[in-house]
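Reviewer 2 asked us to include a model.

Predict the structure of this chain.
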Amino acid sequence: MFPSDSAGQAMGLAARQNGDAIVLAVSGDLDLENIAPLATALAEAGETVTGPVVVDLSRVSFADSTTVNVLLQAHGTLGPRLRLAEPSAFVRRLFAVIGLEHALPVYGTVGDALAADAPSTSLAPDGRE
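Predicted model (structure tokens):
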């Protein structure tokens, strides 16, 4: 249904169902060269998943403007069902620099993102809500 981890690429992607929600765990470097599987998974989730779509960013070591664009496009499709969780230190800094934590729902943990009824407040720079 969704793309899975790919050998030989810097980015990894694993999907797991959690009731009516899905968690997309992303790892490694996210950039123009390898963001397509995440974009595809988010687009498919918009068509097939009825609950929250949680993107676990805890193992992302690098992300660029392409990643931001994919997340913003997914938010346009999924609205508040898109929930970003556990951003790594790099991702937290990126979101803070561009102000993305004020535009998209960001949660401290995957569990918080799954349990939330509505988008959270933004994360502080140190990752605390």
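Strands lie at 11-18, 21-30, 53-63, 82-85, 106-107. The chain has a mean pLDDT of 87. We have added this to the supplementary material.
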